[in-house]
Amino acid sequence: MADTDNVNVEEAPQTDSSSEAKTKSMDLTVEIDDVGPCKKHVRVRVPRSAIEDVYSEILQEYTGKAEVPGFRVGHVPQELVRRRFKEELSDQAKQRVLLASLEELGEQSDLDPINEPNLDLDSIEIPEEGDFEYEFDVEVRPEFDLPNYKGLKIERPARETSDADVSAYIDRFLEQYGKLVPVDEAAESGDHVTVDIETSHDGKPLAKIEDVSIRIRPILRFQDAELSGFDELMKGASADDTRETEIQISNEADTIEMRGEKVAVKFTVLDVKRLEVPALDETFLERIGAESEDDLRDQIKGMLERQVTYQQRQACREQVLEQITDSASWDLPEDLVSKQVDNALRREILEMQQAGFTTKEILARENELRQQSLTMTKQNLKQHFVLDRIAEVENLEVTNSDLEFEIQSMAIQRGENPRRVRARLIKSGAIENLEAQIRERKAVDVILKNADFTDVDMEPPTETTVEALNRSLCRAVVSADVEDEDELEGEE
After folding, report:
1. More confident residue, 242 or 449
2. Among 218, 361, 472, 487, which has the highest number of CB atoms less than 10 A from its own CB?
3. Distance between CA atoms of residues 300 and 165, nearest Å
4. How confident is the model over 284-315, as pLDDT tens digits?
5. Alpha-carbon distance values, 397 to 24, 392, 394, 401 (Å)
């Protein structure tokens, strides 16, 4: 503003009068309407008297701090301050009225929002006369009656971890540190092939994935499709050979227009390699931070037992959800589900990392989930809301020691420093997912503690049959939280 030259107003501190104003009711008029599943439309009317109170408060703060030529600080006439700082006063009043009214709305209404309201602040203006009205839509937690969650009858899969299980895991664990060595032989099951992948639909090029290494296993799982019989397709392949097939895209793929469509896929082999794993000697044990082979076996046995616990928890969660069908019959808005897809994936991945699954096993699971992401996310959201309500009823909280224990477990599995794992979780925003996941697990533990169990045999660990590729046949998609194998090797 031209008439504010040589005028300075510092950010005014909170005064006693402003603190009192915060506790004074604004006498809002509020209307709340249902406009869809888990969504409310809110209309708020702020009376003129409340606006004038806020404006007077801000004007007093400006008057006490304004520096205007010809006047001492604190002695500038209030009317002059009002004229010179009209725009600034209006902006401050708008921000403070909105903040105070939203705070009062939250205290006095039954709204339980999931996200921040979608307010367009730039389009909101407080009129110079009369009351001030604004409205917005907000996503809220579903309303449902929490059923009796104690005394549920649950079948719990159980199995003892044997020495053979530990040895089999060590074999898979060593593979993560192995080196690929080129061979001048035809490819066999278990070998690695470096390939270029070209996809097309109705004869038109669709996507190309260049120079990617894939282990030959029965199933090749992309983020949006799955190829069975991959080992048979690639059997006997050598450099410069090509293999062609058709793959059907998942009905829940990110690329909506390609859902359920069949695409032609061409693999061009660049080379064949075999994996040489390191010896389980003192050098390797020191590298991964294990004191001895017995120490490593003890750590791995603990991981495998956590995997059993993970599978038990997953099975029990499914049964819990089935037994609260009446309470979980509410609908969820599609936009909320879509926004939560990556969040749900990240939470599942975190849980598998804590349980000690290998990077490849996690990636295979991630790709499986991506192919049914919408269905999975709807189920996970309903599960979250129910478990969150139970955690609230039971006063369950996540402590720093809870977080540190989980981070330590993840660090051991990946052979990393716990501080590095924590830093990565914070940087990616996954630390919040970890906290929510621990809280939900505590809620499940309350259910399990009071459940009526019948133990059933758990299927023994089977040989890995799935090779997962962190790529989409339709377009490039970034993994939620699992780095590429090449990136992992580069970090070692």
Report:
1. 242
2. 472
3. 9
4. 888 888 889 999 999 889 888 888 888 887 88
5. 32, 9, 9, 11
Query: pLDDT (tens digit, 9 = 90+) per residue, 389-441?
Result: 899 999 999 998 988 888 887 787 667 788 888 888 888 777 887 888 889 88
Structure tokens at 67: 């520096």
| 466-468 and 262-276 beta bridge pairing | unpaired
Give SS3 for 222. Answer: coil
How far apart, in whole angstroms, are the C-alpha atoms of residue 374 and residue 431? 23
Separation CA 144–CA 332 (nearest Å) = 13
CA-based radius of gyration for the chain = 30
Q: How far apart are CA 283 and CA 492, in angstroms?
A: 14
Pick the CATH number of 153-173+289-461 from 1.10.10, 1.10.287, 1.25.40, 1.10.3120: 1.10.3120
The helices-and-strands tally (H runs, E runs) of the chain is 15, 13
Which sign, positive or negative, has the C-alpha torsion 107, 110, 116, 122? Answer: negative
> pLDDT tens digits, residue range 319-376?
877 776 556 667 776 666 666 666 667 767 777 776 667 777 777 777 776 666 666 6
Residue positions counted in the chain: 492
Number of C-beta neighbours around residue 395 at 10 A: 6
- The model's pTM: 0.50
Residue of 23, 96, 101, 111 lying closest to 56 (CA atoms):
96
Angle 373-393/430-449 helices, nearest 10 degrees? 60
HSE-up (13 A, CA, CB side) for residue 412: 22
CA distance 279 to 287: 12
Beta bridge partner(s), residue 213 = 194
Amino acid found at 240: D
Mean pLDDT of 6-29: 53
Domain layout of the chain by residue ranges = 2-139, 153-173+289-461, 180-276
**Is the torsion defined by CA of 223, 348, 146, 33 positive or negative?**
negative
Which tokens hold the place of 33?
A: 């309407």
* CATH for the stretch 180-276: 3.10.50.40
The CATH number that domain 2-139 falls under is: 3.30.70.1050
**DSSP string spanning 89-157?**
HHHHHHHHHHHHHHHHHHHHS---BSS-----GGG----SSS-EEEEEEEEBPPP-PPP--SS-EEEEE
Given strand 226-228, what is the order of strands in its sheet?
A: 226-228, 219-221, 466-468
Alpha helices in 118-265 (DSSP H): 163-175, 230-234
* Average model confidence (pLDDT) across the chain: 81
The pLDDT of 273-283, averaged and rounded, is 91
pLDDT winner (highest mean) among 73-87, 145-159, 224-238 = 224-238
